[in-house]
Amino acid sequence: MRSSSKPPRKALGLALAAGLVTAVSIGMAGGASAASGTTGGSMTTTNQQPPKGARATVQVSPNPTTHRGEEVTITGNCGGGTGLKSVLGGFPDRPALENIRILESGPDHFVAKANLAPNIGNGVGPVFVDCGGEAGVTLLVTHV
Asked: Which end of the chain is more exposed for a tag (fewer CB within 10 A), N or C?
């Protein structure tokens, strides 16, 4: 077992991703309640959108994944962005996805394929998309 005085990057990254997802979720829920004039936690459906710059949606399939090297499909919508420019799975210094291929980059629907990194372990990590002015993130669960 190795010892290090630095906090683990994986833990910091996961905390950051979880915090971002939580903050956006709370902000959207709070905004929906305030806009509808309700109190007591009851929510009504509204036409609210996430803030400009964070409107892209992204899904990964299969999720959870179960094999190192397994191919996954990344799909979504650019939410007003110009089209899919890049996909990042994990973090630049610890990628969770390799061999990322953008098959369709349209602004209304995009499709990309990638393979899980051979050194991936069990856990949860972010998958980010850059859609030319709009970004999106989802979490990928691995059970390998």
From this structure: N
Instruction: Calculate the dihedral angle through the C-alpha atoms of 95, 78, 43, 124, rounding to the nearest 10 degrees.
Output: -10
> With contact defined as beta carbons under 8 Å apart, do 59 and 95 qualify?
no
How many beta carbons lie within 10 A of that of residue 138, not counting itself? 17
Radius of gyration of the chain (CA): 17
Contact (Cβ atoms closer than 8 angstroms) between residue 109 and residue 56: no
Q: What is the mean pLDDT of each run of 10 residues along the chain (144 residues)?
A: 47 48 42 41 64 93 94 96 95 93 96 96 95 96 92
| In the chain, alpha helices (H) | 9-36
Neighbour count for residue 111 (Cβ, 10 Å): 15
